[in-house]
Amino acid sequence: MITVTVFSLIFALILMLLITGSYHRSVVAMLGALLVIGFGLEYGVFEMRDVVGFVFDNAETVVLVIGSMILCEALGRSGLFQFLGLSLVRDVRRSIRRFTALMLLLTVFLSAVLDNITAMLIMGALTLSLEKKLKIDLSELLIYEAIFTNIGGLMLMIGSIPNLIVAGEFNIGFSRFAAICLPLSLLLTGISIYLVTRKMGNVASLEENLEIDPWSAVKDKKVFYRASFIFGLVILFFVLNDIVHIGLGLIAIGGATAMLILSGEEPESLFSDIDWGTIFFLVSFYIIVGGMERGGVLTSFAQGMSSVFLLFPAFSYFFNLWVCGTTSAFIDNIPITITLIPIVRYLSSVMGLNLETLAWSMVFGANLGGNLTPIGSPSNIIAIGMLKKRGKNIGFYEWFKKYAFLPCIHLLLASLYILLLVVI
Predict the structure, then answer these.
(1) CA-CA distance, 96 to 409, in Å (whole number)?
(2) 216 exposed, middle or buried (CB, 10 Å; 0-12, 13-18, 19+)?
(3) Residues 323-382: pLDDT tens digits?
(4) What is the largest CA-CA distance in the chain?
(5) Spatial separation of the C-alpha atoms in residues 11 and 35, rounded to whole Å
(6) Where are the alpha helices (DSSP H) in 2-92?
(7) Alpha-carbon gap, residue 122 to 135, rounded angstroms
(8) How far apart are CA 385 and CA 394, in angstroms?
(9) Distance CA 293, CA 282 (A)
(10) How far is CA 45 from CA 58, 300, 333, in A?
(11) Across the strands, what pairs with 80?
């Protein structure tokens, strides 16, 4: 019993530090991993080789994340995504609504193939540069782009780290992931664009067609064509993974290696811009969750959740979605996802719930719940930071008043979609 108490206190401390943001999340996770290892060894809960196992058991996911990060960083430097963006908005025919819709569609596309942070940085830079050309205020559009990154992140397996984690843990292939998540993401995109363009209205018109040259974003056409080919090849192998049976991590690392060889970029330069903090956070949190599982903490959590689920078994999948969604509004969705995985496994085995449907409810909640608050998603924080530099502050009250209606609609529609998955 003492081990459950000690590990619960450690976990509570880690969550508190993550919520307050007192330290970088990777530092918090490393501290948590150190405490878990120390107390775990002291109380004989596990041995040092078990700690290695906590990480090794999830090596495929870690490799997949690293490979995807390197690949996306190299693709971004090739100018591919900027080229696509400038091509899309080159002719908006004087309509601010059309311009808004195209920018939001581009946001969804980029966040489907890039991590949300990179997608938001690209869209933010593009939006602010176009704002000068258009001579209109695009502050609201910037916030909506942040929200739409999480819709796009839901679309494909490579769209967000929670997606990669769930796909790796439950052996969900690229095609299967797209078959389930793509329809929901497209539905949310269409409804959201309609609502946003209606809400923003024709507040302005464009004085003239934009004089934009998409090729201005490309420094080296040879590298551009190579990057496009490699990106297409990686996506093809992801799609055919169920047929060729090549590990997703191997495909991502293979694409990253090809880009390192053919991009002409110095590897040290690419590596320096990779978000290694997320990697250390991921590995450290796998150790934390592994220790929590061995210490009986997650079993206690799962038993508590199962007692609630047993009261309302028909709502188990919805409850899981909303728990994941609401907690992701305040805590990074990566630790939420990692923590819930062993819990949903337990619930599936004890209650006979469909494990894959529980996994989908977790994916939907983790991706969409972050938009409920201005601090729930890195994209939101980046967009608010960009606006703050221009003297515009957006707090919780304004966020709830102007923007929280969208994620609420998203979670409600995701709940109905889960119901459809249960029925079929």
Answers:
(1) 24
(2) exposed
(3) 899 988 877 788 888 888 888 888 888 888 889 999 999 999 999 998 998 878 878 877
(4) 72
(5) 10
(6) 2-20, 25-42, 48-56, 59-78, 80-88
(7) 20
(8) 9
(9) 16
(10) 20, 16, 27
(11) none
Please enumerate in sequence order all residues whose Cβ is within 8 A of that of 102, keeping only pairs 6 or more positions apart, or say none. 88, 89, 92
The structure's pTM equals 0.75
What residues form DSSP beta bridges with 205?
95
Q: In which residue are the tokens 């496994």 written?
A: 345
Q: Which amino acid is at 275?
A: D
- Give Cα separations from 310 to 226, 275, 279, 387 (angstroms): 55, 41, 37, 46
Residues in the chain: 424
Q: Is 314 exposed, middle or buried (0-12, 13-18, 19+ CB in 10 A)?
A: exposed
245 contact partners, CB below 8 Å, separation of at least 6: none
> Closest Cα partner for 192 from 138, 124, 144?
144
Backbone angles phi, psi at 30, to 5 degrees: -65, -40
d(CA 143, CA 123): 11
- Beta-bridged to residue 95, according to DSSP, are 205
Residue 110: its H or E element: helix 96-113
- Cα 314 to Cα 356, 363, 376: the distances in Å are 16, 19, 28
Q: Give the number of other Cβ atoms within 10 Å of residue 395's Cβ.
A: 10
State residue 205 phi and psi, 5-degree precision.
-125, 155
Distance CA 159, CA 43 (A): 40
Separation CA 81–CA 114 (nearest Å): 10
Write the CA distances from 197 to 96, 100, 148, 192, integer angstroms: 9, 7, 13, 8
Closest-CA residue to 161 (of 109, 115, 111): 115
Place of tokens 């047993």: 310
Give 290-311 pLDDT, tens digit per residue.
888 888 887 777 777 777 777 7
**148 contacts 108 by C-beta, under 8 angstroms:** yes
Q: Sign (positive/negative) of CA torsion 360, 166, 160, 280? A: positive
